[in-house]
């Protein structure tokens, strides 16, 4: 795995460099070359990119501006090569501001600059690493942390605790690290956020084979990170946390554990970090007769590698993100395939979704210092802060059934035109696949034309008639037809709103967390909640993203906050800290109000973003900068301090 320090000197001739530039993302390359050469004249005013999703590919450049930008880049690369490829010095804040202002219009420089430094890591430093150590703030204090889960969030929590010299143990119920990328092995499984952004800020990679990596590549990435940072020695694999009970008298959590061989034991920790994620418990939907089917039937998240599909009649229930990924490869194997669709997803045109990283782009990553970092920031900006306006509800918008505002309607027109083209004149298919709700009210599905092409096959049927029940032989529809099948696959998503299920969590006063939530999970910043001291959630309520970033970014922010909470606790000699109800409640009122102003909150379409009460319990409604701002440091006024003790 090549990282940012593995940049190679340029030895290519001009014609080879020119060829590689055909694959460049030009606005971010111009900034990288301004850094490399010290020549800010590359950043010409008329080459400032446009903000927004519709301009994302090349910042809205027309062909003439692309040609001029490439010419400037060629000259800069030539000069850098001929000078012997010197290592550029770290830029000062004034230069960073100029570059940021060039790359992102309407940017708040003061707020964005700290985020930029953390995400770019231009000097090679991990600027988010804790600046303190337990050995200096509380050397005699007995204190350890239990991390539940060795997936993406659990690993970054473990790294930061290790850097702060806080003892910890990770409990992982499976036999390996990687979380969702360890558990989901269905064909076609891959990430739908560019992996140059869907990756840790402190562990960037130059040699991603694809822009949107498949499951096995991402699993290898997280395994490599676990090994690189020596985290495996802290993991107890095959160990599930079944319960956690807070001992108020002693200020500790008592955990119940169950190992893969069925043995049980107890474990004490002063703090708990839940890194179990949201997408780990399959949702089967409430379909009558599910146990009646006589053939193999399984969920996409529990893929049966022992069930051959060749020559068999296969049914897939669901057309969410996972289902739409597995449908094309299953169609390639099965004798026939029927896809049962309840709600059509919006397809987000992504021509390079299954494509390798272009040769030229990879060459530039590997030869231009910091280009991959600036490319990462470009994705950060255009696919998060730059896209939020397109999901904002406009008051008195006359067409709420189709969109929530002018910008959202423009996205709808673009996506509709893409779908019409992808359906290649098949009007019946187009009508089946065209959603009847605003874009981004449900999770989108990235598409490079493969899904509509699969539905156009003679051996594939997209069925939109409702399901009455599952039968012994297949699926009976509400119009009385029965579809006979040999294999049935459920692509019906996850019980995302059932946070921390099936664990039993008991806090102060013997109160059960699930009794408190009553199916409507909430937490302050998605991390802490009243009555459950020293319990910290990662990927908790309202920290999921739709158009506004990468979940890895959110997890890193959450861990920054967690670590600062532990600093406050240890420095003050406190037994525990407990979130105050008034802070928690005020925060959630703001979250709910903001989500109602977004497409996913205003629309009544069924989506996993909402819990059974219809409240958006998953999504963060603002931009990435807002979450950064709110998770930099604990506000002591928001917490009650419990006791003063060295603990057991």
Describe this structure in words.
The protein folds into three domains: 4-127 and 359-385, no CATH class; 141-281 and 496-642, FAD/NAD(P)-binding domain (3-Layer(bba) Sandwich); 297-353 and 400-490, FAD/NAD(P)-binding domain, CATH 3.50.50.60. The protein contains 20 helices and 21 strands. Helix 2 (26-37) packs parallel to helix 3, helix 2 packs across helix 12 (371-385) and helix 7 (152-163) packs parallel to helix 17 (551-571). The radius of gyration is 26 Å and the shape is globular. Helices cover 33% and strands 15% of the residues. The model has no long low-confidence stretch (mean pLDDT 93). The protein has 648 residues and is α/β, with parallel strands linked by helices. The strands form six sheets. It has a five-stranded parallel β-sheet with strand order 3-2-1-7-19, covered by helices on one side. Strands 8-17-9-10-13 form a five-stranded parallel β-sheet, covered by helices on one side. A four-stranded mixed β-sheet has the order 6-5-4-18, with no helix packed on it. A hairpin with a 4-residue loop joins strand 4 and strand 5.
């Amino acid at each position: 795995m090549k990282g940012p320090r593995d940049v190679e000197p340029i030895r290519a001739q001009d014609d080879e460099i020119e060829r590689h530039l055909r694959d460049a993302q030009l606005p971010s390359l111009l900034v990288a070359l301004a850094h490399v050469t010290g020549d800010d004249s590359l950043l010409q005013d008329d080459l400032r990119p446009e903000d927004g999703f519709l301009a994302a590919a090349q910042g809205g450049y027309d062909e003439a501006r692309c040609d001029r930008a490439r010419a400037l880049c060629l000259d800069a690369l030539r000069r850098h090569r001929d000078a012997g490829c010197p290592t550029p010095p770290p830029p000062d804040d004034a230069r960073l501001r100029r570059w940021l202002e060039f790359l992102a219009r309407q940017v708040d420089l003061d707020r964005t600059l700290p985020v930029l430094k953390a995400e770019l890591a231009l000097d090679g430093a991990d600027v988010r690493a804790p600046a303190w150590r337990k050995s200096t703030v509380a050397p005699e204090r007995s204190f350890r942390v239990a991390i539940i889960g060795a997936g993406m969030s659990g690993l970054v929590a473990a790294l930061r605790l290790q850097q702060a010299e806080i003892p910890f143990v990770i409990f992982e119920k499976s036999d390996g690290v990687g979380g969702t990328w360890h558990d989901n092995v269905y064909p076609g499984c891959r990430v739908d956020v560019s992996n140059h952004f869907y990756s840790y800020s402190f562990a960037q990679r130059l040699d991603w084979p694809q822009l949107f990596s498949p499951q096995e590549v991402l699993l290898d990435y997280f395994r490599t990170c676990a090994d690189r940072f020596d985290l495996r020695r802290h993991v107890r694999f095959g160990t599930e946390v079944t319960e956690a009970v807070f001992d108020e008298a002693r200020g500790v959590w008592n955990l119940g554990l169950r190992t893969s061989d069925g043995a049980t034991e107890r474990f004490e920790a002063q703090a708990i970090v839940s890194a179990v994620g949201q997408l780990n418990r399959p949702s089967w939907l409430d379909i009558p007769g599910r146990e009646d089917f006589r053939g193999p039937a399984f969920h996409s998240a529990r893929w049966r590698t022992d069930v051959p599909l060749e020559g068999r009649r296969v049914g897939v229930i669901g057309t969410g993100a996972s289902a739409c990924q597995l449908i094309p490869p299953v169609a390639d194997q099965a004798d026939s395939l029927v896809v049962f669709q309840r709600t059509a997803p919006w397809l987000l045109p992504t021509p390079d979704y299954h494509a390798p990283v272009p040769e030229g782009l990879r060459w530039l990553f590997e030869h231009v210092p910091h280009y991959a970092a600036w490319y990462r920031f470009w994705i950060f900006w255009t696919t998060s802060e730059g896209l939020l306006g397109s999901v904002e509800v406009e008051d008195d918008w006359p067409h709420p059934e189709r969109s929530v505002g002018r910008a959202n309607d423009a996205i709808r027109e673009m996506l509709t035109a893409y779908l019409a083209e992808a359906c290649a004149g098949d009007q019946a298919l187009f009508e089946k696949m065209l959603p009847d709700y605003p874009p981004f009210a449900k999770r989108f599905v990235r598409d490079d034309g493969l899904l509509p092409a699969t539905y156009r096959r003679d051996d594939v049927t997209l069925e939109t008639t409702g399901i009455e029940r599952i039968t012994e032989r297949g699926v009976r529809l509400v119009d009385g037809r029965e579809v006979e099948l040999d294999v049935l696959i459920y692509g019906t998503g996850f019980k995302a709103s059932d946070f921390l299920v099936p664990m039993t969590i008991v806090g102060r006063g013997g109160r059960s967390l699930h009794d408190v939530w009553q199916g409507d999970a909430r937490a302050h910043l998605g991390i802490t909640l009243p009555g459950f001291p020293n319990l910290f959630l990662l990927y908790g309520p309202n920290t999921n993203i739709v158009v506004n970033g990468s979940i890895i970014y959110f997890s890193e922010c959450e861990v920054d906050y967690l670590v600062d909470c532990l600093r406050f606790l240890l420095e003050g000699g406190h037994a525990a800290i407990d979130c105050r109800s008034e802070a928690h409640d005020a925060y959630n009122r703001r979250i709910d109000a903001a989500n109602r102003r977004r497409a996913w909150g205003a629309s009544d379409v069924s989506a996993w973003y909402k819990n059974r009460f219809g409240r958006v319990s998953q999504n963060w409604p603002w931009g990435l900068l807002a979450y950064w701002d709110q998770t930099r440091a604990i506000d002591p006024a928001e917490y009650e301090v419990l006791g003063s003790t060295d603990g057991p």
